[in-house]
Amino acid sequence: MLKWLSGTILFVLASTAGAAAQGMCGDAPIAPVIPSPADMSQKSPVDATAARHNAFGDIKTWQGALKSYRDCLNATVSTGKRDVGEMIRSEKPDKDKIAKRQQEVDAANHAFDTSVDDEEKLVNEFHAAQVAYCTRSDVDHATCPKN
Questions:
Q1: Which residue range forms the structural domain that includes residue 127?
Q2: pTM higher than 0.85, yes or no?
């Protein structure tokens, strides 16, 4: 029973820490939808070109929003670490406040790492769509990477 209770408490603390990071910086920007390689192969040449161009633009816009989000997370981490250090050095450190602030730092770090994973996944999806586009013989290869 004690193990279950401590597991439940840890889950609740982790959940509230994630909410703390979201509260400070909001939600991560929503990633755009990238056409799949199958979609790129089935589109007309004009539509495939437009889809590739639009996907690239959508990714750049999303990455701009992602940068702002990450800047906020980095500021949260920096401020949180400073606050934790000051709290530890105070005459009467409040362990609960220190733990809460450290959870906020951990949640911001986790949110940052998750955003990096999401960006890597999206870039890989775009690369797969680009390969599908560039392997077609009926499209302009001027914008394709050179081998």
A1: 35-137
A2: no
